[in-house]
Amino acid sequence: MKALKKYLVLGLCALTLTGSLSSCATVFGGRITDHQRRKPGAGEPQRAVRTGALIADIILFWPGLIVDFATGAIYKPNRNAQAAQQTPPTTQSAKASR
User: Fold this and answer.
1) Of 86, 73, 83, 93, nearest to 33 (Cα)?
2) pTM for the full model?
């Protein structure tokens, strides 16, 4: 009987630890961009929060909020910054290098 209690407690602890280390935005949010990781500087607009992930974290497992805010996954990615990083260099920069 004591062995059963021991395994039950260990299982619940493992489940709690696994749940606290995984959170909605971290697991389902995709890649975290540089825009999401860094804090906005003075004069820069605040980052938008993913409302769905925030509500899911609060309802399902609130310690997941700590993980999401610590990793920056709770913030919406800046689509404009991603597009600027992926665009090829312009012809002006190619002409300047000649």
Assistant:
1) 73
2) 0.57
